[in-house]
Amino acid sequence: MFQVRFHGRGGQGVVTAAELLSVAAFLEQRHAQAFPSFGSERTGAPVVSFCRIDDKEIRLREPILEPDALIVQDPTLFKAVDVFHGLRPDGYLLVNTNRSFGDLQIADAVAKLPRGQARAVPASDLALKYVGRPLPNAALLGAFAALTKIVRFDSVAVAIRQTFPGKVGETNVAAAQAAHDAVAVAPVAG
Amino acid sequence: MLKQIEGSHAMAEGIALCRPEVICAYPITPQTHIVERLGEMVRTGELKNCEFINVESEFTALSVAIGASAAGARAYTATASQGLLFMAEAVYNAAGLGLPVVMTIGNRAIGAPINIWNDHSDAMSMSDAGWMQLFAETNQEAVDLHIQAFRLAEELSMPTMVCVDGFILTHAVERVDVPEQAEVDDYLPAYEPVQVLDPNDPISIGAMVGPDAFTEVRFLQHYKQTLALRLISEFAGEFKKQFGRDSGGLLRTYKIDDAEVLVVAMGSVNGTIKDTIDEMRADGIRIGLVTLVAFRPFPVEALRKVLVGPKHVVVIEKSLAVGMGGQLALHVDLALRNVAGAPQVHSVVAGLGGRPITRPSLHRLFRRALVQPWEGTHFLDLNEEVIAKELHYVRKVRRSGPTAENLLRRLRTGAQKPAAD
User: Containing domain of residue B220, as a range?
Assistant: First the structure.
């Protein structure tokens, strides 16, 4: 089983991101379970969502305690909540930022992860460029596919198009493609 | 058709396949997405021959369903928590009048203190009203139980609640096989009421009954629930034949054959318990699970059959009868009443107000049942430090203030870590 925890702020599409990832896994005939953190969400408040992916039926109903990957949609959260809590030592980290891990003061935590498994992607910038709104969730999923190879990029693209038919879907797929390529092509730093 | 879909939406699609003719609802978290989606399906014409009625309260929602059902329409509504309490009088009336309304409960705690999260307090509060109550383990079962519920309700003229864990199931996006219309049509015949209000052939429903007949009316209501025991199994069997899935029934068992400890539970927590059991069995601990689907009627005979044999039974439930303890545990005790060689029953209250029930906590709990079995009610992951401080404070200070606010203040000051952590 592969478990992903999404961190973001209310209004950033954190819950939608987990759902999209689950749809991408479903399209590959896998089992997936996406769920929100069940709070009274407010715009701007820290929000958490979860996605489990497995090759067999997923029966577990506890929150994800030891994620294999973290997707952080807002880098200011590192100062607000314990984002790294429970992250497996062989885990992945994907952060939406145009700054370095050093600037975000998380270089020490990143150094504990296997080389190449922590990446920063300017997903909000890419979303602004392709979608016209700074909603980083779709772009981050493109980057996630490139980083972890847990799902194929094509599946992510289909999931985005199914959930958002028409222009919104297409522009988000373009942002996801750009983020994917940034991770897949660019050399690993740190 | 296999879909990756939110539980609420899958249920809405399943309910629509049952061809309800009247749906009335008043929104309350966490069942809202179900009726929202049904409302959308009525508006777009995906669900035909159905009237969606917005009402101003839960009391009216069920009252409208009662009226619709009495007039011969297949009627559906949904609610949760305080909404179910506000319906209470109508809940008893629907059962007493023998009207086969189907209602989803998106299980949620009851205030005060106000809490929007999952537990089973709401369903338990209405368990004696005369409805059938079926608890879903997964969203697939939630869909399937609705299809069975309409058939059971209409066959017996008895309203039925399908109880679904709020958020944990209603808001989870997962794989669900949503049946085809033709399959559901084959399984669920059109509603043929045993009593119907017809202006051309007037009757009265809802007579006043005095001491001369009230006991007999109630006895027949109780007797009908005993008939439901047989029908629930039978219709689940037919469902399996037609749809190829084990859904519903009175109860299901998991790895019980050689078990020395059996766990009894209802709802979505069964999934987490199964994973825990697999891990414990890998360590050589012989433990199994009885998943209770039907809480009303309560399957005394079926439970007795599976519970006699092992030494210990751990009943884990998301509800508390304040001043008594675990309600489900009390029911299990009843099933074992006067039975020779009955196991010891250990009661656990867990997951109240949405507290996660985790594998680490279950591991500790189940191991303790083997080495240090307890009497009375055990509260899983209780923060004993905060309780002790509050009790001490209340003893010292007469005007100690509201408990909920006091506890929140203690937790916020960071002096105590919640035990669930």
Answer: 2-243
